[in-house]
UniProtKB/TrEMBL annotation:
One of its GO terms (molecular function) is NAD binding. PANTHER family: 3-HYDROXYISOBUTYRATE DEHYDROGENASE-LIKE 1, MITOCHONDRIAL-RELATED, L-THREONATE DEHYDROGENASE. Belongs to the HIBADH-related family. L-threonate dehydrogenase subfamily. It holds the Pfam family NAD_binding_11. It comes from the Bacteria. It catalyses: L-threonate + NAD(+) = 2-dehydro-L-erythronate + NADH + H(+). It is an enzyme of class 1 (oxidoreductase). It comes from Ciceribacter selenitireducens ATCC BAA-1503. The keyword Oxidoreductase applies. This is L-threonate dehydrogenase. Residues 170-290 form the 3-hydroxyisobutyrate dehydrogenase-like NAD-binding domain.
C-alpha cells in the first residue's frame, strides 16, 4: 500500500489511458493492481512494476479504490456487478468511474454502488494517453464530498486538474458530454481542413506549421494532424470511441429536443470512417476517408509498401 495513504488501488482497464493511470499510481507509491482482458497489457504492467490479475473481483479484493477505465457504461456495469468487483472491495471503498456515459447511467451506477456501502465518483477524464502517462489528466468529477476526501491522494497522483462539479453522479458525465461534442467536431474539422489543404495543392506540413500559429488552430488540430503527416494511424483514440461518444451526444440532444446539427455531421463522418473498415484505427483516420473519397494521396508511414 501507499506509505503515505494506506490506500490499495485497483485499475480495471489497461488500455492507452488506463495504463497511464496505473503507472502514474505506481510512481506515486501506491500498491496498484491492474486488470484487463488482454494478457499482453497485463504483462506490460507487470514489467512496469505493478501486479496484474485477470479476474476483476480478485483484482479488486480488499481494494480501497477501484478505478474503471473502460469503454462505456455497459462495461463499467459488467466490471462492477456482473464480474463482482464492487462486492469484493474493502468496506467504505470508493469507485472512480472514468468511462464516458449519459448522466442517467451514471446516476444509476451510483445508486447501486452506494447500496453496497461504497462511495462512487462520476469522474470522466480528458487529456489523452500522453497526459495519462504523465499523471496530468483533467478529471470532471461529481460525487459526495466524503468520497472525494478519501481518494484525494489518488487524484493528486493521476491528474493535473480535478474539478468537483457537484455532490451527485451525472454532473461530471454531463460536462464530459459537452467536451466530447467539441472534441469530436474539432477532430472532424481538423481532418477536413488538412485534406482540403491537400486538395488545394498545398504543402500540408507547412499548413500545419502556419495554422498552429494562427487563430484557426485547435488542440485537436495540433494533436491529430501530426498523425496524418506521419501516416501513423495506430490508435491513441479510436474512431469507434467517437462513434460511441457522439452517438451519446446525439441521443441526449434528441431526448431534450435540442438541435445538434454540427455534432450530427461530425458523427456521420466517424460512422462512415468506421463503416470503411477503420473503426479501430486512430480517429485521425477521418482524413483517410476523405482522401479516399476525393482521390487524394496522404503521407504514408515509413516502410509502407
Amino acid at each position: 500500500m501507499s506509505k503515505q495513504t494506506g490506500l490499495k488501488v485497483c485499475v480495471v482497464g489497461l488500455g492507452s489511458m488506463g495504463m497511464g493511470v496505473a503507472t502514474s499510481l505506481l510512481r506515486g507509491g501506491f500498491e496498484t493492481i491492474g486488470c484487463d482482458v488482454s494478457e499482453d497489457a497485463m504483462t506490460r504492467f507487470v514489467a512496469s512494476g505493478g501486479k496484474a490479475i485477470g479476474n476483476p473481483a480478485e483484482a479488486a479484493r480488499d481494494a480501497d479504490v477501484v478505478i474503471t477505465v473502460v469503454v462505456n457504461a455497459a462495461q463499467t456495469e459488467a466490471v462492477l456487478f456482473s464480474a463482482g468487483a464492487a462486492a469484493a472491495m474493502a468496506k467504505g471503498g470508493v469507485v472512480l468511474s472514468f468511462a464516458t456515459m449519459g448522466p442517467d447511467m451514471a446516476r444509476g451506477l451510483e445508486e447501486r454502488v452506494e447500496a453496497l456501502g461504497l462511495g462512487y465518483i462520476d469522474a470522466p477524464i480528458s487529456g489523452g494517453a500522453g497526459r495519462a502517462a504523465a499523471g496530468e489528466l483533467t478529471i470532471m468529477g461529481s460525487g459526495r464530498p466524503e468520497a472525494f476526501d478519501k481518494v484525494r491522494p489518488v487524484l493528486d497522483a493521476i491528474a493535473q486538474k480535478v474539478y468537483e462539479l457537484g455532490d451527485r453522479a451525472g454532473i461530471g458525465a454531463s460536462f464530459k458530454i459537452v467536451n466530447q461534442l467539441l472534441a469530436g467536431v474539432h477532430i472532424a474539422a481538423a481532418c477536413e481542413a488538412i485534406t482540403f489543404a491537400k486538395a488545394l495543392g498545398l504543402d500540408i506540413a507547412k499548413v500545419y506549421e502556419v495554422i498552429t500559429a494562427s487563430a484557426g488552430n485547435s488542440w485537436m488540430f495540433e494533436n491529430r494532424v501530426p498523425h496524418i503527416l506521419e501516416g501513423d494511424y495506430a490508435p491513441r483514440s479510436a474512431i469507434d470511441i467517437f462513434t460511441k461518444d457522439l452517438g451519446i451526444v446525439s441521443d441526449i440532444g434528441r431526448n431534450l429536443k435540442f438541435p445538434l446539427s454540427i455534432a450530427s455531421t461530425a458523427l456521420q463522418m466517424f460512422i462512415m470512417t468506421s463503416a470503411a473498415g477503420m473503426g479501430r484505427d486512430d480517429d485521425a483516420s477521418v482524413a483517410r476517408l476523405l482522401a479516399q473519397v476525393t482521390g487524394l494521396d496522404l503521407p504514408e508511414a515509413p516502410g509502407t509498401i
